[in-house]
Amino acid sequence: MPANSQFVAFVAELLAPMGPLAAGRFFGGHAFKSGDVQFAMIMGSTLYLRVDDETRPAFEEKGVKPFSYGKKERRVSVKTYYAAPEELLDEPDELVLWARRALDAAIRSPTKLGPRKRK
User: Fold this and answer.
1) Crossing angle of helices 92-108 and 5-14, rounded to 10°
2) Which residues contact 7 (CB under 8 A, 6 or more apart)?
3) Residue 84: helix, strand or coil by DSSP?
4) Consecutive 10-residue runs of the chain (119 residues): their mean pLDDT?
5) Which of 43, 50, 114, 117 is most buried, most CB within 10 Å of its CB?
6) Got the DSSP string for 63-95?
7) What pTM did the predictor assign?
């Protein structure tokens, strides 16, 4: 589902206290980066924040789910991104706090993908 452009603008405004952020489209969604580190994404009208083993329990306590998408034969969960609890959108200071934790998680957990191997 493509990212809702009005929601992207709303979230960008809420995240402004984090300083300059790079943003752009990917796979029909929208990514938020600090420098070259992606810490958040929007798919449709849902904000997802990066998690790791240290931050995931807070998301699970709020009852939110990881990002997932459908493939032909199954549903795939991406357990490195969880939906931001909806109440954060009404509490900008709290959202920025969670977003900073997401950035920290992304920094602690760099992608495990290395250079692509040629066949």
Assistant:
1) 90
2) 42, 45, 47
3) coil
4) 79 93 83 92 92 95 86 76 95 96 90 46
5) 50
6) T--EEEEE-SS-EEEEEEEEEPPGGGGG-HHHH
7) 0.85
